[in-house]
Amino acid sequence: YPNQCYHLDCTLLQYKVESAKWSNLPTTGLDGKAYIVFYEDIDCGGSETSITLPNAGGIKNFDGKKVNGLISSFMIKSQPSDVDNGFSNVCSWASADVVGGSVSQDDQLVMVVPKPTRV
Question: Are 67 and 52 within 8 A, CB to CB?
């Protein structure tokens, strides 16, 4: 889901992601573009690598990227940043524990909550 932080907080995935493939992601949104962003920190923070979508459905390796060997989370950005769709722990999805496997999320959006405004 757009603007949802996906955690990779498990032994098999955290800091071990070397490549990524994807399909059916948004291709328009912010100023006509959508992005997939990979983060060093588990809460979608820290060093990041941003890729404009569509990008041929993946990235073969993260060599030379700021997050190479350090990926702990990712987010699809296609909505304004005041939309926060919470988080999901990818490690709890079926097949997340399979080396070289793939995971997918169902198509039902369960939460769209604006971020609180800072005073």
Answer: no
**pTM of the predicted model, to two decimals?**
0.75
Taking domain 1-119, whether its CATH number is 2.60.20 is answered by yes
To which residue do tokens 């889901």 refer?
1
Q: What value does the CA radius of gyration of the chain take, rounded to a whole number of Å?
A: 14
Q: What is the DSSP letter of 93?
A: S
Q: What are phi and psi of 2, to 5 degrees?
A: -60, 145
Closest of 105, 118, 117, 102 to residue 5, by C-alpha: 105
Rounded to an integer, what distance in angstroms lies between the CA atom of residue 40 and that of residue 80?
22
Instruction: Work out whether strand 87-89 and strand 5-7 pair parallel, antiparallel, or are unpaired.
Output: parallel
- Where do the structural domains in the chain lie, given as residue ranges? 1-119
Query: Which residue is listed with tokens 């959006």?
Result: 109
Report residue 114's pLDDT band, with 50, 70 and 90 as the boundaries.
Answer: very low
